[in-house]
Amino acid sequence: MTSVDNGLLVLADDLSGAAESAVTLGPPVPILLTRADPLDHSNRRSTEYCCTPDVAVDLDCRYLSPTEAMTRTASAITDLRSGRTVFIKVDSLLRGNIRAHLRASLSSTDGPVIFSPALPQLNRTVVDGVPLNDGIPLAATSAWSIEGAAAPAHLSDLCPERPGHITLESLRSSGRNTLASLAGSRLIIADAATMDDLRRIIDLARDSGAVLVGSAALARAFADRRSVHQLASPGPGSSGAGAEPTRVLFVLGTAARRVNDQIAHLSAHADVQVVDLRASQVLSWRSDRAALSRTADDVRSQLARGDVIVRLTSDGAAVDPRPLPGLLAELTAQVLRDSETVRLAAAGGETARAVLDRLDIMSLTVRKEIHPGAVLSAVDSAAVSGVVTRPGGHGDEDSLTLIHAALAEHLDNYSTSTVGTMKENQ
């Protein structure tokens, strides 16, 4: 292609989405963690990352109000675009503040905005503007059964203004002249059923300066269009031979059933201690801080002897889950307060983000994809020397075993990130 690659700005509504998009892009990619005020330190951000081709941002806004989500998105575009192609990563099942992201894209840029949320790897496609899940219209599936609203029947249902439409036929036959027939529309929805379709959309965006809004498959397509794809390889650093062992701490903020099998698999391959915490017990810490401190002392004591898994469990009682990530983050901070540096794995997007916020970690640098959804990153922290993030229930039974093995290696051994199989954050 003839257009210049000035890099990609990835804006995601949660941490795992930012990580799984960033890891496809090749060289180490920084992930910035947006705080409550997206304009804080804007001058530092724009200068510090002006020479980094690709940058990802966790906007942490999936469950914010539409107004707050729009403000964060628009501020990040203005602050960090600097000639990069803008890609807003959204859920391929179309949950979250998508209308707000589209509105922010239109208000903070002058060119087209192309909305194409297809994820071919999971057979989530868009045909005639209709989002399909395994060939069934999304609105006719149970994917939104707990959302408290009906799934969109058409992509235009999520658009803040009447969009133009690129059909599959037009995308595949008109090539890079596709946008010419839509000159009167800035907001454009695009059908896509394959990765080749998404690569064609990348070509359109690169030629026109369009903002892209869609699933992490668009980041993969962007990487595919690059002439050089670097894979993880040993860097110039130490092999780790003879180094002092660093403990691994897992914080699993999910009670998903498959985690039981994952812990059993890890326990069969490594010496780890498991600390089970009932959700109702964790919630009691809001009024019983002494109990939280006692639990932190116990976990710290076990961590001094070996690797530890802190697991959230359900005792069948109905609980409000919203405070749990913050309480687990406070526990983690207290455990690490008087501990040696550890390597950390956090499962559950909200839990991972809460832990990083509590440890005052402002950014990550993606290093390696361990398996789809699980991403190893480097951080600048005295308490933590490496972090793996993973959506709560993701992975096969060997997920934690693979994560443990990756964290047990020296992070410096990875000079670039793995361009591996990508899977959507659920």
From TrEMBL:
Presence of keyword Cell membrane: no
TM ranges: none
Location of the Four-carbon acid sugar kinase nucleotide binding domain: 249-400
Four-carbon acid sugar kinase N-terminal domain residues: 8-221
Record key words, sorted: ATP-binding, Carbohydrate metabolism, Kinase, Nucleotide-binding, Transferase
Record-linked Pfam families: NBD_C (PF17042), SBD_N (PF07005)
Xref: InterPro entries: 4-carb_acid_sugar_kinase_N, 4-carb_acid_sugar_kinase_N_sf, NBD_C, NBD_C_sf
One GO MF term attached to the UniProt entry: ATP binding
The keyword ATP-binding belongs to this UniProt entry's keyword annotation: yes
Family: Belongs to the four-carbon acid sugar kinase family.
Name listed for the protein in its UniProt record: Uncharacterized protein YgbK (DUF1537 family)
Species assigned in the record: Brevibacterium celere
